[in-house]
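Before surveying the methods themselves, let us examine one representative protein, written as a sequence plus integers encoding its fold.
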Amino acid sequence: MEGRGRAMSRSYLVGLDMGGTNIRTAAVSAGGEVLLMRRGPARATSSAAEIVENIATQILALEKAANQQGLGRALALGVAVPGPLDLTTGTVIAAPHVKAWRSFPLRRALEARLGRKVVVENDANAWALGEFWRGAARGRKDVVLLTLGTGVGGGIIVDGKIVHGRIGMAGELGHVTVEPGGMRCDCGALGCLEAYASASGMRGLVEKALGLERGAPLPEALVDEGGDFSVRRMTAEARRGNALARSVFEIAGRYLGIALASFINIFDPEMIVIGGGVGGALPFMRRAMSREIKARAFRASAAQARIVRAALGPRGGVVGAAYAAISPSRARRMSQIAAFPQ
């Protein structure tokens, strides 16, 4: 469990970010400062009802800890979960790492359990909002954000507002096609960006390069203590000059660049923010990525689009979930409320 905070009496927002393994909950000030953060298990393989109970239990535990540290009351609650989801109804359509959530009315279930309003947001959108509010994209209005992890998530901010689309499924940037007829993505399609620039995609590239069957054991240098493929280990190997590691990053960087060139041409962003566990390998992908952007993106737009690393790390999701719980029009009033003891 993680915890940090300060003894003061002030109201706060609750932000929760659920991953495939862990849940992070945080008390976040109206100005975006993390006052207290905790971590607990996601229990994503449990039943739908058990997962809801686990989320609710962790929210209540955070609020109890916040109270013990002298914080005030929770003013709003935002929950970020893997999508895609229908934001109009708060229904999770199909979460890749939560098999029990298929057309599951998450918002309704949480509101019934907690007895209060809950705002549900896609986890990648929440992370994008966090970086926009308090991170690398602070002060920008037009931003594309990519999170490279087990999969590839994305968020699009235009004129200071997150782009949700008709029901909330916009921004699935990991599933743009970068190689028609290419490698199979976990979504079932062929040639998605996620099939190349995510951890799972890179594992597939390693398997292909070595002529291995899918799921076969990998070289010891590329796996962690549990025997699972590790981008961190492969990055370390690339630093040592490992030809296989550098080749995989070169391929991933090329396809990342193809995708980014399209995003630049479509959205004309001020900034592109790249985060997630795979983001640490960006130095080994940047040359191929930049080459494709130069070849494919309009020069005027590409010259103005800064490509940077995310700044908030594990705080990004909880800060963004808290931000999603309030509308920008309420932000000033929330700041005024939070400035006074409760």
